[in-house]
Design brief:
The structure is a homodimer of 106-residue chains.
Chain A: H1 8-11, H2 15-25, E1 29-30, H3 31-36, H4 42-54, E2 58-63, E3 66-71, H5 73-99
Antiparallel strand pairs in A: 1-3, 2-3
Helix pairs in contact in A: 2-4
Chain A binds a DNA duplex (30 and 30 nucleotides) through helix 4.
Chain lengths: 106, 106
DNA sequence: ACGAACCGTAAGCTACGACTTACCAAGCCG
DNA sequence: CGGCTTGGTAAGTCGTAGCTTACGGTTCGT
């Protein structure tokens, strides 16, 4: 379940979420700290963080009353793997097209 | 030229668009051909292709009355570069956190 | 040259997602 | 122990992205 919402690309599709993700990537950040650097309210940041966490892109850690978020290397690795796959298929298709230049296989 | 952002991620955020992108990645495809393999109409595919093309992820080539689309390696490379940057920053932040054990940045 | 096939664009409707305010739970500090 | 701070959740509003049908332009085939 939550299968559709668990994809990193879908999560990073939103520019605000991407901004949050980039801020978190620079180091562990608390929710209020993020909200202070963004033009949106704290609950909005919380919701975005929930989506990012659900997508496996960030992890959270409770420290006192604050909650520190940091990027999850596994999530980023998954995205890289996906792009590598597409990249590979595109290159293979291109190579095949170069070989079969003369005519079209019908 | 620098006008279009790296919203390649934004473009791939939509699952339908991602499906189109993956189909195109397997080789040059025409619009009607894509529409035939998808549960949406041909105009919808056209609109998605426009977004992908605007994001620099695909390129189009007019062949007779058909229009072949294929992936743009530069677009994929840009996405990979972005992820690499985030990855690098995350690793640097983690290394810094390990070295500077008990402090936290403002 | 006429018809058919392919594609892009316009206009419009619907649905989802992003944001806000309000409220409540949990942990620190006086 | 009481107040203050921090965060997550609920309910509601509003914008916009995505899809459809309808139309016009362009090219190939006969």
């Amino acid at each position: 379940m939550a299968t559709y919402r668990t994809d990193g690309l879908g999560a990073l599709g939103d520019p605000t979420r991407r901004a949050i993700f980039e801020l978190v990537a620079t180091g562990p950040k608390a929710v209020g700290e993020l909200a202070r650097e963004l033009p949106i309210s704290r609950p909005a940041v919380s919701q975005h963080l929930k989506v990012l966490k659900d997508a496996g892109l960030v992890v959270d850690e409770a420290v006192g009353t604050r909650r520190l978020y940091r990027v999850d290397p596994n999530g980023v690795a998954a995205l890289r793997a996906y792009l590598d796959l597409v990249w590979d298929r595109a290159l293979a298709a291109f190579a095949a097209a170069v070989e079969n230049t003369p005519e079209e296989p019908s």
